């Protein structure tokens, strides 16, 4: 929570514009985060994961600082280019792409693509001939708060075949990628993944394929309720793992921070719409906010991400609350299995601040579910 | 799947407009559904649950047929009024409302509000004096495919207190409401809920509060993979339960179909973007579509709603597939715990038709997650 955000919210309230929830992102924090990554991993190129927060203000700032961009769609590629990134600073990092979208990206100058199977390599060979590809390998993500499914990546053995196919089809087998899981709080998670990566490098070399890049993905955490290690610790640990597994032939590396770049830069202001109990005997109060799962807080799915929440009554006695959103959807409940402690003095109409909401909020917002408008955002 | 939708999709394809997924809703089916409800429950007023599909074409059609509207927000109220409904045909059916939104609804002529606690009654007494209120009671929803949480409603005993408060504060304690759970396939579910309702009627009468309305909510199913009973069976069963529990003093009744009104009227056309395996040994193929959880299929959450899917290869041998969406989000997987059988001959680029998608799809769509545009919709 920065002074700049506090002042912005104060002014908004004074002008009477606080009738809907909003996200405020402090670009100074994004700037600091970029510098921390650049300093902690000086030999890695930073590809910001645009999907975390594609606001033009964020993209322009990062482009001006020299960041590269990891894009999930042609629309994101266009946004990165519009923000000032040249095409060689952009990767099409989604392993799932329509062939016509690959062709559109190629026409825009993009030459770096992600794959995890031979069928995708074939599309790229046809629609983006000669491009560089990196193959994503499966990794099991222990220790991540938002562990990834098996959706992306293939077994390391298959990765060798995929990169071999790329070479045969005239593409440049550039390297491999992995993802240690989002909000990864174990700095050592990268060690095991880099061991796998180096083994794929060796298997490829035996087939005459010389890889040169490891994309170490994202996963860098932002602070929610629990403290997280500073990015410099991640940097040191990753560097040690690179030395350990690649010796004196350390490859080019890429990192793709998203949450770690913008998460702690944002605050959502929300209003308490209702406080109630279901019966006179109930211990737990229900607190309903004007934002929920469908208004931007999708990452509370399965109560995965537990945000820190500030209230005007902090310091008062706390009682457990079920926290829910404003829609007529019974699934729109944020925290229930593990109730959230909030002050007993909390009142209808109070404004709450949900911290660490700069990433994966604004674009998750539904178009108009229950008639509620998408989350309003301000980047200051 | 109607002839009209088939023809529409054929034309769209011939014109080359099929580059993105889309939802097509056949208004003739909506018309038939409305008539079925009106015939099956001739003494109930139909309040269409606008949140299920708020397209102006759907609202205008239903308004012209005499439907009333259950609205979750002021925006939905405005849409219902714009579609031609007069204010007395509109209820503000969300139990969670900001006081200033109640005032806005009141200014638009709305006089019927839903509550489930005294705090909400107090807001309505201040912002919409003299209005009718109905209190939602908790019901446990056994038998529903999308069972509701405890988010809405209060214990029956508390409902009596809430309605008593309404009376004391100058409101009209009009009745009670319940919801048997969405996609409720047990016609008898309403029997137990109506027993509860009649008991609240009696308890209120003892305090001198004479209720006159039971809002029996929605929950009427639409056909996905399994067959569902026709609405006429629900009508008969509900009528029997009303007679059983209310004798010769049957109250006014309201039903709020949403899914049952529009679900089977819609088809989503989607494209197969990628088919792959994670390793050579894997039995299960991964099939990636250009629509997923964040493009409109939010109800596949926890694999709750299992849609019927048609392919151009129906009749061929089937193999189990994990079905996933196109975003870089590992949670964007539709069916994995119980893999979905699809033809072995399925190919990248094939168009699939997802049936029963007229409800709870278009507005759930995210604004721009991963840069993908919201679901395109056509109401024909």
Automatic annotation (TrEMBL), chains A, B:
- What's the catalysed reaction? L-ornithine + H(+) = putrescine + CO2
Cellular component terms per the entry's GO annotation? cytoplasm
The UniProt keyword set, sorted, is: Lyase, Pyridoxal phosphate
Name the coenzymes or cofactors required.
pyridoxal 5'-phosphate
Sequence ranges assigned to domain Orn/DAP/Arg decarboxylase 2 N-terminal in this UniProt record = 30-262
Biochemical pathway: Amine and polyamine biosynthesis; putrescine biosynthesis via L-ornithine pathway; putrescine from L-ornithine: step 1/1
Region forming the signal peptide: none
Using the record's annotations, give every residue carrying the modification N6-(pyridoxal phosphate)lysine: 51
Is Lyase found in the keyword set?
yes
| Pfam families, per the entry | Orn_Arg_deC_N
Question: What are the recorded GO MF terms, alphabetically?
Answer: ornithine decarboxylase activity
Entry EC no(s): 4.1.1.17
Positions annotated as active site in the UniProt record: 328 (proton donor)
Does this UniProt record's set of keywords contain Transit peptide? no
InterPro entries, alphabetized: Ala_racemase/Decarboxylase_C, De-COase2_N, De-COase2_pyr-phos_BS, Orn/DAP/Arg_de-COase, Orn_de-COase, PLP-binding_barrel
What is the uppermost EC class here? lyase
Q: From which residue to which does any coiled coil extend?
A: none
User: What family is this protein classified in?
Assistant: Belongs to the Orn/Lys/Arg decarboxylase class-II family.
Q: What is this protein called?
A: ornithine decarboxylase
Organism expressing this protein natively: Bradyrhizobium lablabi
Lineage, highest ranks first: Bacteria, Pseudomonadati, Pseudomonadota, Alphaproteobacteria, Hyphomicrobiales
């Amino acid at each position: 929570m920065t002074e700049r955000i506090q002042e912005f919210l104060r002014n908004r309230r004074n002008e009477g514009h606080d009738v809907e929830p909003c996200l405020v992102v402090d670009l100074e924090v994004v700037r600091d985060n970029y510098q921390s990554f650049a300093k902690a991993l000086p030999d890695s190129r930073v590809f910001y994961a645009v999907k975390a927060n594609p606001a033009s203000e964020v993209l322009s700032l990062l482009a001006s600082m020299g960041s590269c961009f990891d894009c999930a769609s042609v629309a994101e590629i266009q946004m990165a280019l519009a923000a000032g990134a040249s095409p060689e600073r952009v990767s099409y990092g989604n392993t799932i792409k329509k062939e016509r979208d690959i062709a559109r990206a190629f026409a825009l100058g993009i030459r770096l693509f992600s794959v995890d199977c031979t069928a995708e390599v074939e599309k790229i060979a046809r629609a983006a001939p000669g491009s560089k590809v990196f193959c994503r390998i499966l990794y099991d993500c222990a220790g991540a708060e938002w562990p990834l499914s098996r959706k992306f990546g293939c077994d390391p053995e298959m990765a060798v075949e995929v990169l071999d196919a790329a070479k045969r089809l005239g593409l440049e087998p550039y390297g491999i990628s992995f993802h240690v899981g989002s909000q990864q709080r174990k700095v050592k998670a990268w060690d095991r993944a880099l061991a796998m990566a180096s083994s794929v490098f060796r298997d490829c070399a035996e087939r005459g394929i010389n890889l040169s890049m490891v994309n170490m993905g994202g996963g860098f955490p932002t602070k929610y309720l629990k403290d997280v290690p500073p990015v410099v610790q991640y940097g040191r640990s990753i560097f040690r793992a690179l030395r350990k597994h690649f010796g004196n032939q350390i490859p080019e590396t890429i990192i793709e921070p998203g949450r770690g770049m913008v998460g702690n830069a944002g605050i959502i202001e929300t209003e308490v719409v209702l406080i109630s109990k279901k019966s006179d005997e109930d211990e737990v109060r229900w607190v309903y906010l004007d934002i929920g799962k469908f208004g931007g807080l999708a990452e509370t799915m399965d109560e995965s991400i537990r945000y820190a929440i500030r209230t005007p009554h902090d310091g008062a006695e706390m009682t457990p609350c079920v926290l829910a959103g404003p829609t007529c959807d019974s699934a729109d409940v944020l925290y229930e299995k593990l109730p959230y402690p909030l002050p007993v003095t909390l009142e209808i109409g109070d404004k709450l601040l949900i911290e660490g909401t700069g990433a994966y909020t604004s674009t998750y917002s539904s178009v108009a579910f229950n008639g509620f408008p998408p989350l309003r955002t301000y980047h200051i």
